[in-house]
Amino acid sequence: MNPFKQKTPIQIRFKDIDRLGHVNNANHVTYFELARVDYFNALSGDDIKIDWDNEGVILAKIEMEYKQPILLDDKVFAYTWVSKIGSKSFDMSCSIVRVVNGVEVEAAKGLAIIVCFNYRTNQSIPIPETWKAKMIS
Fold first, then answer.
1. What is this structure's pTM?
2. CATH superfamily of the domain spanning 5-135
């Protein structure tokens, strides 16, 4: 599988910094969320329209592994991609990187289980085939 991968710049805000001088761990999940939204915006494009009022996705589970601190002045990006596709859910992976001496170094990695969902019927639904095709392209 050669997944569609999205690169999202992350703005570190002063409020993200904790007493130890690095980004507090709770913010990494927010960065992953920003990256997931960016991923879906890029995924939808001209050929795929997502009707977020009726059908979309819900977050079922999230995990984050911290590898090294992120500092206020760091240049940070989040890469997101779909790492596993089921019938009604998929795994979305994330790598949060900081640029150190011109090289991207992984600061954290995450995994989210996303379920396709009909908001009106309050039930899970199959992943649209158009999504699957784009996710693996």
1. 0.90
2. Hotdog Thioesterase (3.10.129.10)
